[in-house]
Amino acid sequence: MKSFDIAQINQMLDAAPGGRVHLVGIGGCGMSGLAHLFLDLGYLVRGTDVASNTEIVQLKTRGAEIQIGHNASWMMEKTPDMVIYSSAIRRDNPELQEAEELRIPLLRRASALAALMQRQRGVCVAGMHGKTTTSSLLAFALKALGKKSSYAVGASVPQLQPHAFFENRVGDPETLFVVEADESDGTLREFFPQFSILLNLDEEHLDYYANLEAVCREFKQFAEQTAKTVFFCADDDRLPEVLSDRDEAISFGFHPLARYRAVISAQPGQLGHGAADTKFEVWCKGQLLGLFQISLFGEKNISNATAVIAFLHHVMQCSPEQIQDSIRDFHGASRRQQELFSDDRFRIFDDYGHHPCEIEATLKALKGQARRRLLVAFQPHRFTRTHFLLQQFAVCFKQADLLWVTEVYAASESEIPGANGQALAQAIRAQGQAVDFRPDLQELKRAVRSAMRPGDLVLLLGAGSITQAAHELANELKEEMPASMENIIAELSQIVSADTVLKAHEPLAKKTTMRVGGTADVYVEPANESDLARVLKFSRESSIPFFILGRGSNLLIRDGGIRGIVISLSNPHFSRVEVAGDLIICGAGAKLKAVSVEARRNNLMGLEFLEGIPGSVGGSLRMNAGAMGSWMFEVVESIRFMDYEGNIHERKTGEVHFEYRGCPLFKSNVALGAVLRGRMAPRESIEERAQGYNQKRWLSQPAAPSAGCIFKNPASIPAGKLIDELGLKGARVGGAVVSDVHGNFIVNDGQATAGDVLALIDLVKQKAWIVRGIELHTEVEIIGEYQKSIEE
């Protein structure tokens, strides 16, 4: 097959703008990401794969034409301008052979990605371990900072949907392009980035590389191809030597001589909502840069985060405060310490780790999160890796209290005698560690479930099909939860007063203005602040997630409902509204309409805009809700709130940071109430103003059930006007409809599901991007679980 360099590929792309691109193996993470990039660039994307998956479904919704099964005839139907294939595709693939016969340009995935990256300021993240987490964290941080950036991550990332995105179809040489660069097949040399981040070198991919020295040579060549700064981990044994003759090299890590040095200041703990609380300092050239926090476990993730901090500080010139805000809320990529299930009994994690170093680091990170024991089930990946690293695998599971090993996931390799799951189990036993070999995944899952005891943390580990067993186990535990929820209610009833409402499996649809969504495992209406504090403490100590539910506006709950405890401050204790002069003292549960009415009764002006917001005081504080050109914190004098430890605090408005549609304080605290200030005015003036606002609202907003404005307004055009100009008013998915009254409202015709609303949101976002190049972001908060059938 003829090979093409980056310049030739870009010439082909320039010669066929909006042309046809065919991807063989389009369902893989790397190939599906490339497909998203070409869709962003306006190309017509076709592709094939052996089976459908979520990546293929997502691409189809964006307009890609995808066939299941490989067939040479696809090359003759709508002949593509180029065909792209991954290293996983065999050379005898009928589509590749037919494309070669028809002289259609054939490109490797890495070559096409490297060519696209060359159009912008490339930032490559490379290394044997951690590059998915690091590249996705960097892409997430750049978006949070509002920087123009493209990205291509080699795995699904829930907070980056999709996992590859090309900013600006026209092209902009100042836009950063973050790429997870794969070294497994020798394609690292395809990339010529402006910047690179090198995480580690290891004995890996020895099916391709002759030895570790060959790996080092590959990375040395890649570093030489980096035009500007190379960031490297000083803790790695080999990287400092590989980069010893390079001037523009900046080190990071825990090493005392690292330019950006990480120091752990707080071991990971558990917040009330179940997220990690990993805090660490970063020192730069001997000076404290700042204290940082991430929602990931373990020293390796701290090191990965330090690489991102170094890049943002040195290259992007971001302040420590900006960096802190940009990385704090990142929750990781799929299958990287991904928590699939958590209740008062068990926690289930799925992880992609398949190399001894990754496994050892992951087990060390999760061991501290287990209340009782760490149970580990491992599926080896590839016979070659098992063969070359058998002795390293034999000693990397020491942190596991119970261990299972299943058969090797071949990944299309031929079997190597003596390099199988049973041989690995024997090698582990020879090191004095007990291990149970279960060749069948279903049998493995049953054995793990039988051994589980309350307080256990279960980790299913490997790059192959063991993820299916992990999801099946998590779903089975969800089915078992009803009895468990009854136990939680029984325990809660012992610590709260009799006036507190406790319900299991409570429907939530009628508690939202959209009137869609599933059930809450446990629903609680505390009778007072003391009971609220007790529920929060119980949730924290039991590692049960919780969610604070307001009046349900600006909220979309998925059809699978909310796991854990849903707390509603709808008891009258939290809904009081009292007037003292020109001040109004409000509980968090008070309806905004009630606040506005009480203000009018007492001749207080300035609060009329609240009447048009269908929410509560607590929700409006959290979202800094607004209407009619005014917003909540314009009228707030002070606030009361409770932290997750149950302590009550008060602050003046001047001591609170708030922003457009948000107040970060309430991401980790519960609003209890606020003091609002009005101004004395004649009743007639207030009534006239309120009636004007109401009339404007009813003329411009639909009466049917909705969650309020769905999208934030882009800088260039109001979202409602954009949707109107796109001709989407009246667009429908199931019972969800884009309102004819206001384009930024999606209404429920009475039959909608949350799935309908989400699908319609995606439809609007895709058309806005394809037709106008505008990326819409949701203003409505979307929470909860997908229904089981959708997940599967």
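the 2nd protein, sequnce then structure:
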Amino acid sequence: MNKTIVSYGILNFALVALLFVGVRAQDLTVRHIMAEPSIAGMRVEGEKLSPDGTKVVYLWNAEGKMPRDLYLVSTSSGTATKILSVSDLPVPSRTPEKENKLDYGVDIRDDFVKARENQLSNFEWSPDSKRLVFSHGGDLYIFTPGERAKRLTQSQTAEVGPRFLDTDRLLFSQNGNLFVWNLANNLITQISKEADQQKFVAVGNANPNKSGLLVAYVVSDNSKQRALVVPNFLGEFVTAGGPRRGWSEQKVMVVFADGSRETPFEIKLPKPDGVGNIRSLKWAADGKSLIVDRVDKDLKRRQLFYVDTVGGKAEQIILVTEETDEKWQAPLSSIVEPNPKDPDQLFFASERDGYNHLYLAKLEQTDTRPTRQAETGAVASVPDNNERVATSSDMSAPTGKVNITQLTKGNWQVEWAKWSREGDRLIYLSTEGNPAERTFFEISAANGQETGIANSEAGMRNSPQINEDGPQMLLFGFSKWNRPEDLQVQRACGTCAGINFPRTLTESADAGFMRRRWSVPKFFDISSRDGKKIPAKLYLPARHDPKAKQKYPMVVFVHGAGYLQNVINGWNNYYREFMFNELLTQKGYVVLDIDYRGSAGYGRDWRTDVYDFLGGKDFDDHIDAIDFMVANYAVNPSKIGVYGGSYGGFMAAMLAMRAPDKIAAAAALRPVFDWKNYYASSPGYTAQRLGFPDKNPEAYRRSSPITYADKLQRPLLILHGMSDDNVHVQDTIQAIEKLIRLGKTQYFETMLYPSENHGFVRPESWTDEYERILAFFERHLK
């Protein structure tokens, strides 16, 4: 592969430490860290780049408080203006609350709740970049910046965010089904009818073609799912709600957007083998052929289908690619994009060589018919109810053969990719150069020539967007380890004339926060027992001496999700823990954070090394890292603690119960104690890693901390939200009962949070939780 790399202005961490001046963060307390407004400021949300690339809207509040307002910023000047607030809109109607004279208890709808109700959401640009559609309080609104927003519906429920089919038509969902609203004549047409809440049948994944003539969608039969009961103890009476979880039977449908055909076309894909799901639907450039990405064989097989001429007499289903992973399919392999100009080309991602890379697929065509063309974007005439979508006579016919070429290659992974508007280049975001950072590149589809897209500094780039019309721009979030994420924009081109460094559009971090001088983390690798390298991030107390006779206590932070990356030069969801780790270093602790086996960012083998045993190699990585720290950083082997939430809580519990010689105290937040419970809550995630409980009971037994409850002999602090519908509080309740029966009272303590779900939201809950953790460590590690 030919490659030309643009040079980058990268500041290394040591230089950052020298240049970053300001006050020390020694005044931090847990209450400072968890306060609202946050001392780190408020991040922007819901950002949308206009189709012409000239402007961006986003949600933010200058005071760092809820609710968020809508801002508009020019991509050329960087000038931002607040253009809409919740207070500018009618107050959504509510059922009047009954007067309660016994109101001295918990106020269910306090100011915190009210500030989060009826947020502005689901903003989408019109194709001409002049208007926006959005949701508020269950109603749809049309908004032209500079004018008053117009409410289209009253007291209705737009369950799926609205979007423009063209400048005059909206696609939206109400009560589970799809509708099209013609703004020119105010006509509303229902185009799907399969959704049935009583029978648990849902319609989703709606995707219109470019002209807005056809809409593809997925019908999911969820009737075999089970209700996950989540009690609410806060009201006068205990109530029970909760989502349904489990497997679905799915089929792909295509319908005319004008409702001219009574019944949709069903895409007759080969019957799936075992459980799986439709990952995406994408229209080819001709607007008549559909690309369907499906996973089945119990999440181990991925099949990519090309449905040529949907609903036509010559409809043909072509298997573009099929691959099976004996463990499970990578989430990143869901990257699929049809060429916007060539109906016979698409790219897809795959881990088939060990890392997630891009592959170009070309459908072979007969030469007996004219070359197929891309859609113009204009709305075509619609056949009558008896006609199909297209006839086979207006295009060449595919032979069924597909030629596949690997475009990117190396010991790094692609995490996002899109075609250029011309369909000759692919723009992608990858870990190339440094797995702790993300950088944009472009590659020629014709010859594989790769070029870096210039950037001014090293760091993390997330959630890219690219526009379709006008000069193509990249909108993305940029951050560093000590710099919260803000929006940046730049040309989506590595070979354009001149240097196109990014422009920062938002500065959302609090000025006082940016003046703080944080402990600079050390990034390095630790050797594992099986010869692999464990990525690590280390925080040291001031004037740390690796040869000190007086050894240091250490706390290990375990990131959640299992499949997540936290050893990065960037800001992430664990910003509170970043500040808490700083507080720990101020109190004399060494703090270690590793990307254990199963973490994202390091290729297929690292991702799947946890297969069949959660708490196997990922557990060993923590033990190996602890031994390394004891040997090299003057860590006291008898004063080591661990904390983490979700998967991190699971690992903290495993370490407490299975490694009493290594761990002196563990705090497990919202932990999984029994993986068969999590299978009921999130069967896809669990089956990927452990298979099915009835088929692989031993994997569930050895992977569940509750199995080892009898071995607990070190202090364990358990904290859990009682409204958690991800890791159900059932896990903690069962663990408590087993520990009580085992006579382990002296070794554990528990705190439950009645109003909190999996991700806490109230600052009072965050504060209570982490003040308990801090006191717990101070008591047992000092």
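Residues 763-781 form the longest helix (19 residues). Confidence is low (pLDDT under 50) at residues 1-23, 377-393.
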